[in-house]
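Entry 14. Structure prediction run on the chain below.
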Amino acid sequence: MQSLRNYTIRTRLLGLGLLSVLALLLIGGAGLWAMGSTRSEFQQYVAQDVGSLTQLSEVRAGIGNLRRFEKDMLINIGDDGTVKQAQADWQKTYAGVIRSLDALAAMETGAQTAAMPPKLKEALQAYKAGVDDIAKRILNADFVDAAEANRSTDIIKAPVQAMDSGVAEMTRAILQHGEDEVARLSTRERAVRGALGVVLVIGVVLIGLLTVLNIRSILAPLAQAVDTTERIARKDLSEPVTVQGADETTAMARGVQGMQDALREVVGGVRSATDSIATASREVAAGAHDLSQRTEQAASNLQATASAMGQLTASVQHNAASAGE
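Output returned:
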């Protein structure tokens, strides 16, 4: 606290205000940074996981349409126009599914999920090879009826099962990755909130401590000055005034010290003058007493002289009388 008094009250108050502003800026900046970081990661989560689920749903829908166009080719044996249209729709849908798989492969949804689109693409290519062969045989009239054509689809059952299981596995993996990301973001949010809480507590404690020390550094000298003035009012000038620091209260204490020193000099001068007057009075009294004694001695001498003169006069008269006889 004593070191604070080396600075003026104005400087201390300005410093405390500046520290408060800096603390607010620090807390606010940290909060804004945390919000921006969390928002960026959330946007990335939405763009990756939600986007991957969207692409995967398109893959699932595309595979369903591929199976539907496949059935259209099988049940329309003998109608080459319908078969060709179904084949064209199948090829178009296949291209869309491939694009969705490529988009899935480009998304960052975890190492496990990233390895699935290529496998799904391999199964889809095997399925395409089987469907192309069946469509070619249908257009070449290699099948007697739809039942015979349907039996030929055994070669594509394995790729179809691989596609279905791959889509299901990829769905589970993406959902798990999403849950992991949500948990990570929640943990990060708690960590950021805890860090902001710690910074806030430290700022409040630091500012509060400096405020208390600043108040004490102002009130303590004021209390000392009040005590000194009360002692002076009681005519007690014996205790010296302590002057430490360089702030306004120090200047006030220095003024009180100067006033006490001046009063001490005045009282000392009055006391010295009083002592001088007392000494002079004693000397005057002693002189008066000596003068009184001398006056009494002179009066006694005068009486003796008068008595002697009376005796002399009587003797002269007696001698004169004796001479007349």
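The chain has a mean pLDDT of 79.
Filed with the rest of this week's runs.
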